[in-house]
Amino acid sequence: MEQEYRLILLGFGNVGRAFARLLLDKRMYLQEKYNISWRVVGIATGRHGTALSREGIDLESALQIVGDDRDLSSLSKVPPPENALDFIHKSDADVLFENTPVHYEDGQPATDHLRAALSRDMHAITANKGPVVHAYRDLTGLANTKNRAFLFESAVMDGAPVFSLWREVLPGARLISFRGVLNSTTNLILSLMEDGKSFEQALTHAQEIGIAETDPSGDLDGWDAAIKVSALVTVLMGHPVRPTQVEREGIRGLSKEIVARSWQEGKRWKLLCEARRDGDRITASVHPEEIGIHDPLFNVMGTSSAVTFQSDVLGALTIKEEDPGPHTTAYGLLADFLNAVRR
Ligand SMILES: NC(=O)c1ccc[n+]([C@@H]2O[C@H](COP(=O)([O-])OP(=O)(O)OC[C@H]3O[C@@H](n4cnc5c(N)ncnc54)[C@H](OP(=O)(O)O)[C@@H]3O)[C@@H](O)[C@H]2O)c1
Predict the structure, then answer these.
(1) Closest-CA residue to 243 (of 231, 227, 232)
(2) Which of 35, 126, 130, 218 has the greatest number of C-beta atoms within 10 Å?
(3) Ligand 1: distance of its center to the CA of 53 in Å?
(4) Which of 73, 88, 100, 134 to mutate to test the pocket of ligand 1 (most atoms within 8 A of CB)?
(5) What are phi and psi of 170, to 5 degrees?
(6) CA distances for 177 relative to 83, 107, 206, 232, 285, angstroms
(7) Residue 339, Cα to own-chain centre: how many angstroms?
(8) What is the pTM for the complete model shown?
(9) CA distance linking residue 203 with residue 273, whole number of Å
(10) Residue range 292-322, pLDDT digits in tens
């Protein structure tokens, strides 16, 4: 028998909108393959208004409205709620997708949004790293109590299966260490510097194509990479580590000349994300390193990312994701949705 789920989208930016497009693309497939259908009953944003409708919101119209920089409230069947928590409470949904901007320091307000959804017996799904590093145990505990899922596949490496790999596919395996290239902006800048661009030219290009932020320090100084290391260690190694506890060095010290010299010697620079278990101790770091041609991360270029896991049973296992973007992040959310409701 077909099962319909009522969904709410909190955050309708690059990721939220890519997810809406993927839901539309996959509507028939989900019905045919899994007997699953969906209805989006609420969309909330920061500056583009909020819409709630039990009958369902037309996603094409919502995409058009926000694409035109207009307000979504015209699609609402009830007076728009006061704030995000009110929106969650009034929605009567089955699943919340939380895709608001990350706040590195405390993971808020996303953590409160996810907690509110779980408390109201919804599955809570996010691409936001903040709640993972600041409230993983708390939110997972609440989800277990409520027999619901708190899932966040897209928080690291977009839609590539990193968390679900360890949760579902490798029972009994123990993660000893990992080493990866997890920040797209710095990897793109280093790739462009190999092609002869200066650091400033490469950064400007990354900003022009929308990869780097206007204030790029979160990427250049290794904060984004550190929060990803922190998320992987916290979830996969069962050891809560804050981003500030990750030893961190960014790529500002690398010049075009240094990168060119390495390249002439058949080497290249990468911003490496690493963590290792040593007895009860975990060491975690983000730092630039010169690597050789036989390194599995050598050919991770541009905005691509990869991670090599060392486990006690499989040795090295590398996952590489090429040319990610909001569409691959959207797939991680869809996978979480299907995994949550098919449990
Ligand atoms: N972009 C990616 O490929 C990617 C990959 C992995 C993870 N992520 C994570 O996914 C999340 C979303 O990223 P994004 O690229 O979609 O960001 P974005 O384009 O900036 O969109 C953020 C959305 O959140 C809304 N918003 C902001 N504050 C809000 C609040 N307090 N309450 C309700 N809505 C609020 C914004 O509304 P207005 O625009 O109306 O202000 C907008 O709709 C972030 O946590 C990011 O780190 C992104």
Answers:
(1) 227
(2) 126
(3) 22
(4) 100
(5) -120, 60
(6) 42, 25, 31, 10, 12
(7) 16
(8) 0.96
(9) 20
(10) 999 999 999 999 999 999 999 999 999 999 9
